[in-house]
Design brief:
Elements (H helix, E strand, L loop, with lengths): L2 E9 L2 H12 L5 E5 L4 E8 L2 E8 L5 H9 L2 E8 L3 H10 L10 E3 L3 E6 L9 E6 L2
Parallel strand pairs: 1-4, 5-8
Antiparallel strand pairs: 1-5, 2-3, 3-4, 6-7, 7-8
């Protein structure tokens, strides 16, 4: 794993959260995107080398909606950049981690992604991300 790529934050109200984080970080959202496969709307902010991804549920059945219902707004996941997501997934499986998918899938911000189950990662939902060519 190369670095923390971004921190994902689950929010109830995207417009209010964008206004809050733009003020907090003193920077504007540089990209918004809908990820239909996850039923989520995203907004990305960057401050120096650090990125924040705001996540709003588009469906009451989405993982973000379930997270918000159970835990409320807050940190949802930590994403790590990897050079070879397939190799990293295989390495983590061999180390006993549970992955939430068998193959990487398209995610936001032109990335391929895979999540590591929090029960095998110290209670933290970990996302692996690799840029798509």
């Amino acid at each position: 794993m190369n670095k923390i790529e971004h921190i994902g934050i689950a929010v109830n109200d995207m417009a209010a959260s964008v206004a809050l984080y733009e003020k907090l970080l003193n920077t504007a959202v540089y990209k918004t995107e809908t990820v239909e496969s996850e039923q989520v709307q995203t907004a990305f902010l960057q401050s120096g080398p650090n990125k924040i991804e705001l996540l709003e549920a588009l469906s009451p059945d989405s993982a973000i909606a379930k997270f918000l219902e159970k835990k409320g707004e807050g940190i949802h996941h930590v994403a790590f950049e990897v050079d070879d997501i397939i190799a990293e997934m295989a390495r983590l499986k061999s180390e006993g981690f549970i992955l939430l998918s068998d193959e990487p899938k398209p995610g936001a911000d032109n990335k391929m992604v895979c999540f590591v189950h929090p029960k095998t990662a110290g209670g933290v939902l970990v996302e692996l991300v690799q840029g798509r060519s």
